[in-house]
Inverse folding.
C-alpha cells in the first residue's frame, strides 16, 4: 500500500472540508432548544474525546494544538503518529502492546459518558439497505460513512442509517464517522487491537486527511465533522 495511492483516496473524500474548523461553535442560530446551546464534542482520529463549552472554539482546535508538538501550525505525519502512540499507551493499561476487550470496554465507558453530555442527540433512522465497504484493497474511504465494517464482515449487506447523527454523536463527532473509533483499527476483527494494527491505521488516516499530499495537516484544511456542521447550521 503506497502513500500515493492512499492520498489519492483522500482527494476524493475531502470535498466536505470547510474553513475555520476551530471557529466558535454555532454562532448565530446555534442550536439549543429549551436547554440552550450544547457543548461541542470532537473525537480525534485515535478516539480521544474533547469537549468545549457553548461559544468556545470547536474542540478540534484543542486536539490539533496538542498534536502540533512544535507549535508551527502544522501536524506532520511524525507528530500525528506520536499523538496516536500517546493515546494507544493511555488505553493500553497492561502495557502489553495490544488493546484487549476489557481495555476497549473501559474506553467505551468514556464514550457513554460523552454521549450523556450531549442530551437529545440520538442516532438517525435506517434507510434502504446498501453495501458498506471498509479499508483494504481498492475500497474507497469516505468521511460520510464508517470506512470499516465493525461487524467484521467486509462487504456485508446492511441497512445504512441516514442523517448527521445516523451512527450516533460519537461517530458524528469524528472525521471518519466511526461508531467505535478504537475498534476501527481492529483490522482482523478479533476484538483486540495490536500496536501494529494501530500503526497501520494511523498511516491510512493521515493519508486521507492530508488531502493536498504535502505531508502535514493544518487546522484550516481539516474537514468539519458532521456534528460540527449540524451545530453550525442550527435548528431547522
Amino acid at each position: 500500500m503506497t502513500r500515493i495511492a492512499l492520498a489519492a483516496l483522500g482527494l476524493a473524500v475531502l470535498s466536505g472540508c470547510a474553513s475555520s474548523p476551530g471557529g466558535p461553535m454555532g454562532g448565530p442560530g446555534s442550536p439549543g432548544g429549551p436547554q440552550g446551546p450544547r457543548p461541542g464534542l470532537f473525537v480525534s482520529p485515535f478516539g480521544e474525546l474533547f469537549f468545549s463549552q457553548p461559544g468556545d472554539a470547536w474542540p478540534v482546535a484543542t486536539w490539533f494544538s496538542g498534536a502540533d508538538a512544535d507549535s508551527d501550525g502544522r501536524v506532520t505525519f511524525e507528530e500525528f503518529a506520536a499523538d496516536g502512540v500517546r493515546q494507544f499507551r493511555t488505553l493500553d493499561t497492561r502495557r502489553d502492546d495490544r488493546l484487549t476487550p476489557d481495555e476497549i470496554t473501559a474506553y467505551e465507558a468514556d464514550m457513554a459518558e460523552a454521549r450523556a453530555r450531549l442530551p437529545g442527540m440520538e442516532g438517525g433512522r435506517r434507510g434502504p439497505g446498501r453495501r458498506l465497504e471498509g479499508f483494504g484493497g481498492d475500497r474507497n474511504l469516505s468521511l460520510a460513512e464508517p470506512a470499516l465494517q465493525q461487524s467484521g464482515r467486509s462487504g456485508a449487506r446492511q441497512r445504512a442509517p441516514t442523517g448527521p447523527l445516523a451512527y450516533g454523536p460519537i461517530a458524528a463527532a469524528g472525521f471518519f464517522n466511526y461508531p467505535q473509533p478504537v475498534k476501527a483499527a481492529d483490522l482482523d476483527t478479533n476484538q483486540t487491537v495490536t500496536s501494529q494494527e494501530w500503526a497501520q491505521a494511523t498511516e491510512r488516516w493521515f493519508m486521507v486527511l492530508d488531502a493536498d499530499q504535502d505531508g502535514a495537516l493544518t487546522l484550516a484544511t481539516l474537514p468539519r465533522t458532521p456534528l460540527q456542521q449540524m451545530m453550525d447550521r442550527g435548528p431547522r
Notes: Residues 3-233 form one domain.
